[in-house]
Amino acid sequence: MIRIERITLREIRLRLREPFRISSGVVDERRILLLELRDVSGLTEWAECVAGEQPNYSPETIDTAWLAIREWLAPRILGKGVGSPPEGVFEILDRHVSGHNMAKAAIEMGCWGIAARLRQTSLTKMLGGERDRVATGISLGIQRDPDALVQRAQRAHADGYRKIKVKIQPGADVEFVRAVRAALPKDVSIMADANSAYSFSDAPHLALLDEFGLIMIEQPLHRDDLVRHAALQRQLRTPICLDESITDVTRCEDMIALGSGKIVNIKPGRVGGLAVSRRIHDLCAAAGIPVWCGGMLESGVGRAYNVALASLPNFTLPGDLSPSARYWEQDIVTPEWTMDAEGMVTVPRDVVGIGVTVDRARVDNLTVRREDLRAPGNG
Ligand code: OSB
Ligand code: MG
User: Fold this and answer.
1) What CA–CA distance (Å, rounded) separates 35 from 41?
2) Least packed by Cβ within 10 Å: which of 2, 17, 45, 277?
3) What is the rounded CA–CA span in Å between residue 176 and residue 169?
């Protein structure tokens, strides 16, 4: 049994080493919502809400998540006992509260972190993760021209990344991918992520990507377009991977039933946390659908949850789990996340809790907003 008596919300600002551009927007400074949860026993653990600055990737933002956590979600958990492992926290948060998955996930994941600490074990073991190391890919933002993208891709390949993902949009797609494909050895795994930039009438254009042997194309169409993704998949040789569309287990069942995609990107924030992530993982494993762990430009805190999740057995493709230095001058955790020359990140299987320690002095320094949430009567 876990009983959370306080959740401290903080907003910190962390500048990316370089702006990250996707088809729906650009970010140069992350506004990151951190949660620090404290159990009645006095144990604490950190979690991260991955909502962005703008409602472009999903309807949520850091500001809507803050509101949802304070007004509707934290009161359902604070001062009340929840089970351990916290398999049922998502249902407690989800009943009669639609949407706000990233806000729900932040609390839910924090409960997993606390549960691991209480059991004196690692988050990875608590989840049933099996791997000691997870394979890492890089997600490269849209660049000014193909040459600039090729430079970044070559550097990433030399660094050891096991998958090169390039963001695309109309006007920055076929020629950009062609240039990257031509610049890298034949056996390098390349993929493209459109973040919903296309419509079904673009099918003949998207089919031009087939000649490059991409391992997948991620989320070409609108998040709600499962039927059109299925029609598109029938016209493409390249496997479609869904990201934005897969917001819960049912949506994943629909993808499988309709044939809307052949691969799933699992982001715990998008689906409401680790328990739902694991259910999607299990569903896909049973259906022969490979999964990989996506990223949301997380700090070292959110990354810890992603790495633990990615150690489950059906995460068979490299995740968007780049090391700290790919994003930040300096991360907020020690040790920082690193990647070896084989493109592998070590899973902290034997470290109690999430596997990294938050640099509290640095977080205090970066904090621009803070709010303590407590159970009523514990004020
Ligand atoms: O679509 O996967 C995406 C970042 C922000 C919003 C959406 C996406 C991304 C990424 C970043 O691709 C991956 C990473 O964290 O390295
Ligand atoms: Mg994506």
Assistant:
1) 18
2) 17
3) 10
| 104 part of the active site | no
Positive/negative CA dihedral, 130, 133, 135, 139: positive
What is the mean predicted confidence (pLDDT) over 3-12?
98
Concatenated DSSP letters for 185-197? -TTS-EEEE-TT-
Cβ burial of 377 (10 Å; 0-12, 13-18, 19+) is exposed
Residues with CB under 5 A from ligand 2 (ion): 193, 218, 243
> Cβ atoms within 10 A of the Cβ of 56, count?
16
Centroid of ligand 1 to alpha carbon of 6 (angstroms): 30
The pTM of the full predicted model, rounded to 2 decimals, is 0.98
DSSP state of 40: T
Find out whether 320 and 337 touch, Cβ atoms under 8 Å: no
Other C-beta atoms lying within 10 Å of the C-beta of residue 342: 11
**Token pair for 336:** 């920082």
Q: Which atom of ligand 1 is nearest to the CA of 218?
A: 1
DSSP code string of 280-302: HHHHHHHHT--EEE---S--HHH
pLDDT at 378 over 70: no
How sure is the predictor about 377, in pLDDT bands with cuts at 50, 70 and 90? confident
Residues in contact with 89: Cβ distance below 8 Å, sequence separation at least 6, in sequence order: 77, 82, 107, 108, 111, 273, 275
- Average pLDDT of the chain is 97
**Number of residues written out for the chain:** 379
Q: Concatenated DSSP letters for 132-160? A: SEEEB-EEEPP-SSHHHHHHHHHHHHHHT
3-state secondary structure of 235: helix
pLDDT digits (tens, 9 = 90+) for 123-139: 999 999 999 999 999 99
Q: And the tokens for 324?
A: 């700290």
* 356 C-alpha to ligand 1 centroid (Å): 22
H/E stretch holding 364: helix 360-366
Cα 160 to Cα 21: distance, rounded to the nearest angstrom: 23
